[in-house]
């Protein structure tokens, strides 16, 4: 299957599905690939759709241009969604702000973490604020040598959002996470690799081929087993050992009944390479 779709907002974000790979391209290079609310919600929907789409076995999130992967939210915002309120109600009601965060960037980050298919970030430049968290939520991160990661929130006088505290603390530990949040300093790609924020650092000319190779390998793999491995790994830091062991046992029982598992057993016995279908 090969198909290309775009968001309603003048191709600000584009999805292409080909050979089992769904590639989502942020397409606002002139605006640092900052996400409008429409872009953010569209990506969330595409990631949710990917879980059930048998034509999709891996998702790649990339960005147009050479300067920025994603610089977070488009702070210019958009027109407010009208709602009916009592005439005497104030302009802002307690809970409105928190609800906006939950239904916006938290939903986006959650859609990556909850996607049943592996997600790769192809970071081609600056990943700042929510854009940094967009990358860190992905299962694999490949960055160009010129890329940098910035917890920019402190520079704006605000607290991190978009799941940043949950993500960063698990990746680098509590002390280093505090340092990155408190100072908001740029983290160059080489340092990001040393800290464990990214999986590969490559020359810009090699970004597409490196991501393509990883995506191709994942698309040819046992999709359900990979999805279960993702779920178990993401969950492992949030539960105790007994629960994790229980999850593992139940997951293993489920996945061994998939067609790909049967193919894996058969190919081992027949001493040949397996051909996985994704179910």
Describe the overall structure.
The protein has 279 residues and is of the alpha/beta class. It has 2 domains: 2-81 and 95-219, Alpha-Beta Complex (2-enoyl-CoA Hydratase, Chain A, domain 1), CATH 3.90.226.10; 223-269. Helix content is 43%, strand content 17%. The chain contains 10 helices and 11 strands. The chain has helices at 37-52, 96-114, 130-136, 164-172, 174-183, 189-195, 207-219, 223-236, 241-255, 259-269; strands at residues 2-6, 13-18, 21-26, 58-63, 68-70, 119-123, 126-128, 140-144, 148-150, 186-188, 200-202. The strands form 2 sheets. It has a 7-stranded mixed beta sheet, sandwiched between helices. The longest helix is centred in the middle third of the chain and has 19 residues, at 96-114.
Element layout with pairings:
Blueprint: E1 2-6, E2 13-18, E3 21-26, H1 37-52, E4 58-63, E5 68-70, H2 96-114, E6 119-123, E7 126-128, H3 130-136, E8 140-144, E9 148-150, H4 164-172, H5 174-183, E10 186-188, H6 189-195, E11 200-202, H7 207-219, H8 223-236, H9 241-255, H10 259-269
Parallel strand pairs: 3-4, 4-6, 5-7, 6-8, 7-9, 8-11
Antiparallel strand pairs: 1-2, 2-3, 9-10
Helix pairs in contact: 1-2, 4-5, 8-9
**Based on DSSP secondary structure assignment, what is the total number of beta strands?**
11
CATH topology of the largest domain: 2-enoyl-CoA Hydratase, Chain A, domain 1
- What share of the residues does DSSP label as strand, in percent? 15-25%
Terminal Cα span: 17 Å
What's the CATH class of the largest domain, please? Alpha Beta
Number of helices: 10
Portion of residues in helices? 40-55%
Query: What is the CA-based Rg, rounded?
Result: 20 Å
Regions with little confidence, pLDDT below 50 for 5+ residues: none
- Kindly report the name of the CATH homologous superfamily of the largest domain: 2-enoyl-CoA Hydratase, Chain A, domain 1
List the secondary-structure elements in sequence, H or E. Answer: EEEHEEHEEHEEHHEHEHHHH
Biggest sheet character: 7 strands, mixed
User: How is the largest sheet built, in terms of strand order?
Assistant: 1-2-3-4-6-8-11
Secondary-structure arrangement, i.e. CATH architecture of the largest domain: Alpha-Beta Complex
């Amino acid at each position: 299957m090969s198909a290309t779709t775009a968001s309603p907002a003048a191709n600000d974000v584009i999805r292409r599905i080909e050979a089992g790979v769904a590639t989502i391209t942020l397409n606002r290079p002139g605006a640092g690939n900052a996400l409008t609310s429409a872009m953010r919600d569209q990506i969330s929907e595409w990631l949710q759709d990917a879980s059930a789409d048998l034509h999709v076995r891996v998702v790649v999130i990339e960005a147009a241009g050479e300067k920025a992967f994603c610089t977070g939210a488009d702070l210019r915002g958009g027109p407010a969604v009208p709602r009916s309120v009592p005439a005497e109600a104030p302009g802002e009601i307690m809970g409105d702000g928190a609800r906006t965060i939950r239904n916006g960037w938290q939903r986006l980050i959650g859609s990556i973490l909850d996607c049943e298919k592996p997600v790769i970030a192809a970071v081609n430049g600056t990943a700042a604020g929510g854009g940094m968290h967009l990358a860190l939520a992905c299962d694999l991160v490949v960055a160009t040598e010129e890329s940098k990661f910035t917890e920019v929130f402190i520079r704006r006088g605000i607290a991190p959002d978009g799941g940043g505290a949950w993500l960063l603390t698990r990746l680098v530990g509590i002390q280093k996470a505090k340092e990155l949040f408190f100072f908001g300093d740029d983290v160059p790609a080489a340092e990001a690799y040393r800290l464990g924020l990214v999986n590969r650092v490559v020359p810009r000319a090699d970004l597409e081929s490196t991501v393509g190779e990883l995506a191709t390998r994942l698309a040819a793999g046992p999709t359900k087993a990979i999805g279960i491995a993702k779920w178990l790994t993401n969950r492992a830091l949030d539960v105790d050992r007994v629960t994790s062991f229980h999850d593992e046992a139940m997951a293993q029982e489920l996945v061994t009944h998939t067609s790909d598992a049967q193919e894996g057993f058969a190919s081992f016995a027949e001493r040949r390479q397996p051909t996985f279908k994704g179910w």
